[in-house]
Amino acid sequence: MRIGHGYDVHRLTEGRRMILGGVEIPYEKGLLGHSDADVLTHAVMDSLLGAAALGDIGRHFPDSDPLYLGADSLELLRQVCHLLKKKNYHIENIDATILAQRPKLMPYLAQMRENLAKACEISLDCINIKATTEEGLGFTGALEGIAAHAVCLIA
């Protein structure tokens, strides 16, 4: 069994959509990034790649490559899961936390779980997603960005 940890952060900005776990969240700002800037999915990908000792998403999907401009992060997650399968790894579970002062994410967590489970081709009960504020502290509390952590277990 192998454990992986992933972390990602993106700045909030006007003129972008907010995508988290493949769900478009209605909000006046979105996340700035080369792809769709889905911090949750990026953290999950990094945790899986880390557990398998396969580097990180920057190595596999560099932001210098125009191929990934505006990329759908769930599609990139499918590619990561394919890499794991080629190495004969199976995802046992994923636990993730989104750090965001706003918007409130509770209504969207179930769909995020479903999207990630489908992309990873694993059972819904193998994925947990939580959201928390940081009580107004730090860059997430100041509404400057959103971050996510993910841990996974693969075998």
From TrEMBL:
Keywords assigned by UniProt, alphabetized? Isoprene biosynthesis, Lyase, Metal-binding
Q: How and how many cofactors are bound, per the record note?
A: Binds 1 divalent metal cation per subunit.
EC class name: lyase
Which positions bind 4-CDP-2-C-methyl-D-erythritol 2-phosphate?
Answer: 8-10, 34-35, 56-58, 61-65, 132-135, 139
Q: According to the UniProt entry, what is the EC number of this protein? A: 4.6.1.12
Keyword 4Fe-4S belongs to the record: no
Cofactor (UniProt): a divalent metal cation
InterPro entries found in the cross-reference section = MECDP_synthase, MECDP_synthase_CS, MECDP_synthase_sf
Top-rank taxon, per record: Bacteria
Q: Where is this site: Transition state stabilizer?
A: H34, T133
Under the GO molecular function aspect, what terms does this record hold? 2-C-methyl-D-erythritol 2,4-cyclodiphosphate synthase activity; metal ion binding
Q: Where does a divalent metal cation bind?
A: D8, H10, H42
Pathway in which the depicted protein is active: Isoprenoid biosynthesis; isopentenyl diphosphate biosynthesis via DXP pathway; isopentenyl diphosphate from 1-deoxy-D-xylulose 5-phosphate: step 4/6
Catalytic activity reported: 4-CDP-2-C-methyl-D-erythritol 2-phosphate = 2-C-methyl-D-erythritol 2,4-cyclic diphosphate + CMP
Record-level GO BP terms: isopentenyl diphosphate biosynthetic process, methylerythritol 4-phosphate pathway; terpenoid biosynthetic process
Instruction: Share what the entry says about its subunit structure, partners included.
Output: Homotrimer.
Q: Which family does it belong to?
A: Belongs to the IspF family.
Protein name in UniProt? 2-C-methyl-D-erythritol 2,4-cyclodiphosphate synthase
Q: Which organism's genome codes for this protein?
A: [Clostridium] leptum DSM 753
